[in-house]
Structure formats: structure tokens, C-alpha cells
Design a protein that fits this description.
binds ligand LLP; Lyase, Ornithine Decarboxylase, Chain A, domain 1; 11 helices; TIM Barrel; single chain; alpha/beta; 2 domains; 30% helix
């Protein structure tokens, strides 16, 4: 629960806004950093989860690299002080312009998702007179046991080089004079809480690494992607993900030689719990079958519930609210029935003007906001500036 002292400081602020608890962010980053460093692992933060300036700068200060999925993300990472030598560029559809930009900035590696992309990068690198570092994204066909919209590592997904193409890919690579193969890349999905999924991933990584080595191709970097989930149900009891347990799986099950590096692309686990969407109750509607709380925030500010039926904990943080719970459907103002943050949510009796916190919204929240209905640009507040 966001405490009433902090809630009181929101009283004069215009809602809705994202509230970032910079202390939670710092502690989360520190825990991940310690657990990774202990094992010699490299973490690239997936900017797609949140590219808010202060969040990015905190990630950069701790020493993580950046995992980008657009030319603009690469640019943003560089502007925020990330060393290009610590930036990876992934994505199934990189444009020539984006590839050229990344080549000019000598990034650490492109995660390549098809043979055609490999050929395009080779051609552009030759034009730019540079060598492009590349990691091949292999689709490991591992079920992430997560929402189907955020599963990426199955044969039916659009991501990665299909296994059947890898033989051809290895021979194309030999002809690409402007490409240096640095490693292999995998990513099976997001919000994964079942650690056995990562164990299965390790088995596949070992297999593919051996496959390449048997063909005389040395692999320096094993990039196992991101995907570690967080506890949306209990953000206060379980604020910091168990990075020790997560990294330990890879430490135990990933076979590697002393010179082989293990890279991760974590997004959600690093930033989700530090962010909260704060909004006000505009109206309380007691319908025939339902009680509705209509908020001034909607799917335009936080799209996850509408898009993935995602659960976010909802709290009434106004001191004035009584503590007798009533079930409300908590909805936004957007003209879409899917604009609903939660159904039958038990909350204290709530009234117009009460502040509502939607928790664990630091990842894929602000970055997925839209201007649909010509909504205002999203605002944000940092805890250290309150
Ligand atoms: N690496 C790759 C190749 C990815 O596609 C992703 C996320 C990540 C790393 C970071 O994954 P994370 O550690 O954050 O799970 N908008 C959705 C999540 C989409 C994830 C896309 N890829 C959501 O709100 O749940």
C-alpha cells in the first residue's frame, strides 16, 4: 500500500500520473547487479519496458548495458550515457535507416532474426566500411507458460531464425565478410514465474551452442534474453524479484567455457515494481448489477489490462476512505468496453476525488501509453522530487 504520507503529497497534483519510487528502483537494480556480478553475468536492460529519463539514468549508473528494439531506443540509450559497446539492437523488423544508425555508433551487437536480415546488415556494413557484430536469434521452441501475447519462443511465433534455416544461415554467414558472429541469442517470453522454463531454455542453449561448435564456429556470447516475472498480486510483500534464484538456474544449467560470456536482457523485473499509476475517482456509478468507479486514468495510460487481461493491484490511497470493502468494477473514461482495470475489486467505500493507485505499473506502462481519444500526454512524478 502506498502510505498515506506519500498520498497526502499527491493532493495538489493533477492526475493521472505515473509515480516512480526511486528507492524501490535503486534497491531492485542493486539486487540484480549483485546477483549477476557474483556470477560474472552481463545484464542489458530492455528499454522497451520503460525509457523514462530518470529510470534509464538509474539503470545506466548501476552499470548495465542496454537492449534496444528500435533506432530511437539506440539513440535514447546513447543520449542517456550508455556506452554503445554495451548496446544490443534486437527486433524482427529493423529498417535500413535504423541499422545504419547503429552501425555508425558501433554498437555491441545486432540480434539478427532472419537470413535476409543478415544479408542486409552485411551489405550496409560494407557500405559503411565497418564490421557488424551479430548474435543469431534462435527460436528455441520452449513454452514460456505465460500469456499467449507475450510468448515468443515457440515455432508459431514470428521471432528468431527457424531451426530449419540454421544450416543455411551458417553457410551464408561464412560469405558475409562484414559480419562478425559474436554469439547466440534466445528469448522465450515475458512475465515468466516458473523457473523450470529457464531450465528448459538452458538445455536448448547448450544444444545449439554445441551444434555451432561442432561446425567449427566459436560462440563467445550466450544471450539468454529476459522474461523474469514479478509478483503483481503482492507488490509490497514481494517487491524485489528473486534474482539469486533466477541467475542460479543459468549458472547451474548453462554449459560454458571460461571465455564464454552470459548475457541477459531484463526489462520488467528491474522496473515494474517501482512504478504506480495514480489517478482520481471521477464518478461512482451504482449500476443495476455493478458498482463502477470511473477513474480519470484509462487504457490510454495503462494498456496492459485491456490488452492482456493483466492483473494489477488496485488501492484506494485516500486517507478519507472508509475501510468497509465493497466490490467495484474499476474503469477508465475511454470509449471502449475493454477500458477496465479490474472487475469486482474489493475496495473501501470510495467517493469522487479519492486517489487510486494502480500498482506494479513501472514496466510496459508509461511506454505503452497512447493519445487515443486525444488524451493528454502522460505525466510522471519521481519520489525524490516530491
Ligand atoms: N528481450 C527480448 C528479445 C524481448 O522481446 C523482451 C520483451 C525482453 C528481452 C524483455 O523481457 P522482460 O524481461 O521485460 O520480460 N508488453 C508486454 C510485454 C512484452 C514483452 C516484449 N519483449 C506486457 O506488458 O506484459
Amino acid at each position: 500500500m502506498i502510505n498515506t504520507g506519500i498520498a497526502a503529497k499527491f493532493a495538489e497534483k493533477e492526475t493521472p500520473f505515473y509515480y516512480y519510487d526511486m528507492d524501490v528502483l535503486a534497491k531492485t537494480l542493486e539486487a540484480a547487479h549483485v546477483a549477476a556480478q557474483k556470477r560474472g553475468f552481463h545484464v542489458h536492460y530492455a528499454l522497451k519496458a520503460n525509457f523514462n529519463d530518470a529510470v534509464l539514468k538509474a539503470v545506466q549508473r548501476i552499470g548495465f548495458g542496454a537492449d534496444c528494439v528500435s533506432g530511437n531506443e539506440v539513440k535514447k540509450a546513447i543520449e542517456c550515457g550508455f556506452d554503445p559497446q554495451n548496446i544490443t539492437f534486437a527486433g524482427v523488423g529493423k529498417s535500413d535507416k535504423e541499422i545504419s544508425y547503429a552501425l555508425d555508433h558501433h554498437i555491441f551487437a545486432f540480434n539478427v532474426e532472419s537470413i535476409q536480415e543478415l544479408e542486409v546488415i552485411n551489405e550496409l556494413a560494407s557500405k559503411h566500411g565497418v564490421k557488424a557484430n551479430v548474435a543469431l536469434r534462435i527460436n528455441p521452441n520452449v513454452d514460456a507458460h505465460t500469456h499467449h501475447y507475450i510468448t515468443t519462443g515457440l515455432d508459431e511465433n514470428k521471432f528468431g531464425i527457424p531451426n530449419a534455416d540454421l544450416e543455411k544461415c551458417a553457410s551464408v554467414l561464412k560469405k558475409c565478410d562484414f559480419i562478425e558472429l559474436v554469439g547466440l541469442h534466445f528469448h522465450v517470453g515475458s512475465q515468466i514465474t516458473d523457473m523450470t522454463v529457464f531450465k528448459s531454455l538452458c538445455v536448448k542453449v547448450n544444444e545449439w551452442k554445441n551444434w555451432f561448435e561442432e561446425r567449427g564456429t566459436q560462440i563467445r556470447v550466450l544471450n539468454v534474453g529476459g522474461g523474469l516475472g514479478i509478483d503483481y498480486k503482492n507488490p509490497d510483500g514481494n517487491t524485489i524479484p528473486d534474482f539469486e534464484a533466477y541467475f542460479d538456474i543459468f549458472d547451474r544449467f548453462l554449459e560454458r567455457k571460461p571465455n564464454q560470456e552470459v548475457h541477459f536482457e531484463l526489462g520488467r523485473a528491474l522496473v515494474a515494481q517501482c512504478g504506480n499509476l495514480i489517478s482520481r475517482v471521477l464518478y461512482v456509478k451504482n449500476g443495476v448489477k455493478k458498482n463502477f468507479l470511473v477513474l480519470d486514468a484509462g487504457m490510454t495510460e495503462l494498456m496492459r489490462p485491456a490488452l492482456y487481461q493483466a492483473y494489477h493491484k488496485i488501492e484506494n490511497i485516500s486517507a478519507a476512505a472508509s475501510d468497509e470493502p465493497i466490490n467495484y468494477d474499476v474503469v477508465g473514461p475511454i470509449c471502449e468496453s475493454s477500458d477496465c482495470f479490474g472487475k469486482e475489486v474489493p475496495l473501501p467505500v470510495s467517493k469522487r476525488g479519492d486517489l487510486i493507485a494502480i500498482r506494479s505499473a513501472g514496466a510496459y506502462g508509461e511506454v505503452m501509453a497512447s493519445r487515443y481519444n486525444l488524451r493528454e500526454e502522460i505525466r510522471f512524478v519521481y519520489s525524490d522530487q516530491l
